[in-house]
Amino acid sequence: MAPGKTKKAETKSRSKSLALCRRPSCIIVVVLAVACGVGAWVVSDRISRRSWIARLPVLPDLAGVPSARSEIIKNTASMARARPGSAEVVLQLAMVCHTNGYYQTAVQCYERAAQVDDAEWRCLYYHALLMEELGNADVAAALLRRVVALNESSALCWYRLGRAELKRDALVEATEALTKAERAALTEEAAHPQGQATGWPGIAAYARFELARIAFRQHAYDRAERILRALLNSADDFGPARRLLGRTYQALGRVEEAERQTKRAAGLTYYVDPIDPWLEALVDLSRDSTFLLKYARICESRGQFERAVALTRLAVESVPDDFDAVDQFAVRTIRYGKPAEALPHVEQFLARHPDSAAAHGSMGVVLDAIGRPKKSISEFGKAIAINPNDATFYGNAARVMATQKRTAEAEQLLNEAIARMPESKILFWNRAVMFRKANRLAEACADLDSALAIHKSDFHIRVFLAECLAEGSQWDRAIEEYKEVLQYSPEFTRGLGGLARALIHQQRYQEALEIAKRYVEAYPTDPMGHLLCARAYDALGRQDAAQQHVNIARRLQPGLLR
Amino acid sequence: MWGLLRRIVPVLLLVIILVGIPLAIIAVQANRKGLSSWELARQMISRAAAPETNPSDVSDSILPKGPPVDFLVRSAIGEPFEGNPRIAHVLAVDLDNDGLLDVLACDCLSDRVVWMRQHKRGEFTEIPLGETVRAPAHVTPSDFDKDGDLDLLVASMGMVFPNNDRIGSVVVLENDGSMRFRNRVLVENIARVTDISAGDFDGDGDLDLAVGQFGYDDGETRWMENLGGWQFRSHMLQTLSGPIVTEAVDMDGDGDPDILTLVSQEWEEIYVFQNDGTGQFQPRMIFGATNEDFGSSWIVPVDMDSDGDLDVLYSNGDAFDYMPPRPRPWHGVQWLENTGDLHFTVHRIVDFAGASSPQPVDLDLDGDIDVVVVSAYNLWENESAQSMIWLENNGRMQFSRHDVTNDPTHLVTLTVGDFDGDAKPDLVTGGLHVYPPYDRLGRVTLWTNRWPGALDAPRR
């Protein structure tokens, strides 16, 4: 095309356009169109938002609910109302309602969030967790099947599905899901070896445990045993697995092995859910003290002590009038060496509830822990004055008095406590501690026997009894008790050391040597084991071997035998 | 032609602008918001958008709430008590067959099974039966030796508080016919026994026993074959910890007794041990919760929907494994509908903290089965926390909740019977006060039904 012709054509076209624009009807049409468009946009936006808000469930009645809980619900609800089309925000509201005990609302929100984004598997997952809490394994399994379809590489999701199927008695489906969970977990562990460094069994171990349960249910005891032994090789302290192994041996008629496993399991934890980062996120949104205290306890069972304290703190801050939260915060902070942190919470509770005997009791415990025994005893006195029937106050007051060398008063209080609660092994234990300190070993042993009569399989009482017997020179009985202790915990240092010493004292050197060797095998860097070996070898006339162990002990702890 | 086009094009443009653009915008909006265009357009046309609701005007309650119950009149029965009562089980039974209903109670404070004999209408005298039984958890009357009087099967836990020792025993209080009872210990030094029931499992004409042993870590479920002459042979059915209810009942309707068990602890499962009529059992799990903290507390086999088969009324509210015990938000009552071939569908009835011992009873005499349930572990510091509620059935298996009482607290057990002979079911509750507060104590309490409705005129 020639340049001149082009220019002419452009000029003609432009003038035509200008002419069109000049026409008033066209301008009106354009303005109208724009106005209609904007209007339609605004109206539809407003209506659709209202429609979405209308689809959000109505919030529960929050009147009288502790402010921390009502605030987090209201705030999250406001966010959801501002962005009702966001699956993330609606899911957040669902989680907040769930973890604060408003199940019906939470279910509606989970369903809504899943409608908004049907690829967001977390909506289904948390919904499944809620149905699990309500005991509805059928619905939980149905939801989890959808979860694994969306997130098929997650070991945790497969594991939860397997468990739900197991509870539905769908053993084939459960086996399939748990096998996939195990495989996925091993893949995850291989990809992130550092991610599993919690010390708590991972999903692979849990999946194996459930597979063993299935084998047990199917009476395939040999298979159950194989799975459990392999599992315990990698997770020695996994209590439920060891307990199930005991039952498996029992079913196989291997009575001694069954008893051994059962005793070993006695000191181990009960079934505790595996670590689940998504569940942790849910717990963080809770301001419900019941929920928080439950998970604090679970964390404590897993050895996650800081998390346990943090959740208990959140519980007490969320519901300051919940005495259980206050008391458990006190107990946990004392246990983890930070009792001063509990003091203001107990003080505030007491200021609001001055007639609470339990609160005075709790204050007594905290004051004792922070080194104010006199004030502590005074608080226990107040608790007893308010409620003279609660044996705990007498027992705790006695414990503190004993530390103040007010032994006679302490003994009197413990007698009062035991009279009120004769089935409490703790009270007998406390009195035994006091007797032992006063070198009244026969009475200490008698009290520990009483405690054992209440709870024969209590490992700690048995250890204490064995030590008191040894101190009281009742060597033969001490040896029997130490042997019993080692049935419960074969590598327990105080058990191994105590038994070896008692055997040496009874001149049963060969037996002592065997035990000392077990000690060394279990704890090769502990000089105590080597010293016991040395004593046994020496007594057996093998001075060279004895000297070798002495040398090792010296190397491990220079200056030990100076 | 051109002229026609010149006239039509602006009109078309106008139509496109006025209709097309809004439609396009609606489509974009609908897409952005996740609604269909039709939905959005319909709302625009009908202005049907719901008004924004006040977020605090509806509660999260799962059930409609009816008025509180005022027709149950409370009276304590049995001996006056000192200290904190510990009644683990109560049962309505006419033990002496005198036509007046009595109450049996397991008293864990005195370690006795006691008989609250109604010797005259409305007057009860408490009589301890047999010798002591350590921590009696459950009593079941049965003419076990077939001599024409009721003997008592007593589950002895040895200790109510958690304990893994083998301190349980199976005890029969044998009635000599003149209401004197002799303790016969059938087996002892076993995991803590929580329930016993009798049935002829092997079809040999005598009664055998189904025994649930809670234990702690190591529980068991067994049946004890009666060999005659008070000799028994134990057959282990399961070695799970936590059985708390063991019922001999024909769940599959084949004419022989099966064993229905509730296993709590970390299992939270319900089993039917299906009997082939000769004492060979096949376990079938009919319910399981993955929530190891579900708190299973009680089951009762009952035809809830009156369709001719046995359903299971089931409560979860146990919180005794924590000290102090605290209720959980998932505590409540449900019924498992028998849909045939030992398949069951769960129907949640109510959320109720600490729910225990739900009993099917037509309390308002309208022909359908209501439920009364007590609570052992509610938040007692809260004055409004109920220890007993009535779940009224509207005849379509829909329930409404009525509060009954908050005093006494810590009610763990409930039984039903017509104690005053007026053809209206009365209730008896037992209190297990093992943790504070101890301000509303009750041992054994009779709740006499003064329902005002006429007996022959059902309300619906």
Concise summary:
The complex is a heterodimer of chains A (562) and B (460). Chain A is an all-alpha fold. Chain A has helices spanning 3-22, 24-55, 67-82, 87-99, 103-116, 121-133, 137-150, 155-167, 171-191, 203-217, 221-234, 239-251, 255-266, 277-284, 289-301, 305-318, 323-335, 343-352, 357-369, 373-386, 391-403, 407-420, 425-437, 441-454, 459-471, 475-488, 493-505, 509-522, 527-539, 543-556.
From the structure above, extract its key features.
heterodimer, A: 562 residues, mainly alpha, 30 helices, B: 460 residues, mainly beta, four-stranded antiparallel β-sheet, 2 helices, 28 strands, 9% helix, elongated
Structural account:
- The complex is a heterodimer of chains A (562) and B (460).
- Chain A is an all-alpha fold and 562 residues long.
- Chain A is built from 30 helices and no strands.
- Chain A has helices spanning 3-22, 24-55, 67-82, 87-99, 103-116, 121-133, 137-150, 155-167, 171-191, 203-217, 221-234, 239-251, 255-266, 277-284, 289-301, 305-318, 323-335, 343-352, 357-369, 373-386, 391-403, 407-420, 425-437, 441-454, 459-471, 475-488, 493-505, 509-522, 527-539, 543-556.
- The longest helix of chain A has 32 residues, at 24-55.
- The mean pLDDT of chain A is 90.
- With 460 residues, chain B is mainly beta.
- Chain B has 2 helices and 28 strands.
- Chain B has helices at 2-33, 37-46, and strands at 72-77, 87-93, 102-107, 112-120, 123-129, 136-142, 151-156, 168-175, 181-190, 193-199, 208-213, 220-228, 231-238, 243-249, 258-263, 269-275, 281-288, 296-302, 311-316, 332-340, 343-351, 355-361, 370-375, 388-393, 399-405, 411-417, 426-431, 444-449.
- Chain B has a 4-stranded antiparallel beta sheet with strand order 1-28-27-26, with no helix packed on it.
- In chain B, helix 1 (2-33) packs across helix 2 (37-46).
- Chains A and B meet through helix 2, helix 5, helix 7, helix 8 and helix 12 of A and helix 1, helix 2, strand 17 and strand 21 of B.
